[in-house]
Amino acid sequence: MSNDSVSKTFLVAALLCIVCSVIVSSSAISLRADQERNKLLDKKQNILSAAGLFEEGGDIEKIFSDNIEARLVNLATGEYDTSIVASDYDQRKAAKDPSSSKVIEGDVAGIGRRANLAPVYLVKNGGNVERFILPVHGKGLWSTLYGFLAVDVDFNTIKALSFYEHAETPGLGGEVDNPKWKALWDGKKIYGEDGRPRINVIKGKVDTSKADAVYKVDGLSGATITARGVGNMLQYWLSDDAYGKFIENRKLTGF
Ligand SMILES: Cc1cc2nc3c(=O)[nH]c(=O)nc-3n(C[C@H](O)[C@H](O)[C@H](O)COP(=O)(O)O)c2cc1C
Questions:
Q1: Where are the domains of the chain?
Q2: pTM of the model
Q3: Which residues line ligand 1 at a C-beta cut-off of 6 Å?
Q4: Which residue puts its alpha carbon closest to atom 5 of ligand 1?
Q5: Which residue minimizes the CA distance to atom 19 of ligand 1?
Q6: I need a labelling partner for 102 at 20 to 30 A (CA). Which of 7, 12, 128, 251 fits?
Q7: Residue 173 predicted with pLDDT over 80
Q8: Three-point CA angle 28, 29, 30, nearest 5°
Q9: Ligand 1 atom at minimum distance from 226 CA
């Protein structure tokens, strides 16, 4: 076949496409296990950050296994569930299956359904629980934000809030990852006198001279929708339909 022939050009192009697609798909398959492992490690790193235990260059697996106990909670009863090992549980998958989840009424967080079981991470020091970490998620503007809320053992004081997955715009909604904004959460109170979640993100700056400033966090300028989404997800996950019963029970009986 002549090098200048149309059929040879197509043949070479087709062969090149086949070779390239084989290379791309085989590397995607061979890297999948590594990607999953890295995703899990990143999640653990974020849990350690929320726990206040993350050390740059530290052994994440070791710090995690030495200090964190993962458990599952039945959100309807607020009691621990031991029918599944917490590390084997996939909350996102369970939320998609009607037999292991429920439709959320009201749905302020914009997530549609929630799994019946949810993980909690107990942060331990010499056997004592020092804080606990609740995975939370909810809709922002472009994406669902997934994060961890760390709560003090008084069951009412936030220690940290951080997100490990979202697709909000960098510089706008992406400012949820800004350390300065994240620092605003430390010390904020969750429940009002009526026992309902009162913590929220406001539009603009919090007036710190007012008594209710402990329930409010500054909004994100130019990103009101993402900021409102963060407030709404906390309102949901701290309510009786989600972790509220667990928190009430632990107040009575401890961890
Ligand atoms: C390209 C582009 C990206 C945006 N990304 C976000 C975002 O990630 N989060 C958000 O709340 N608003 C985002 N906005 C702005 C929203 O459309 C909306 O104007 C804003 O949430 C209103 O907030 P403000 O009242 O503080 O201005 C984006 C707008 C544009 C044009």
A1: 42-253
A2: 0.89
A3: 141-142, 168-169, 172-173, 221-226
A4: 169
A5: 222
A6: 251
A7: yes
A8: 95
A9: 11
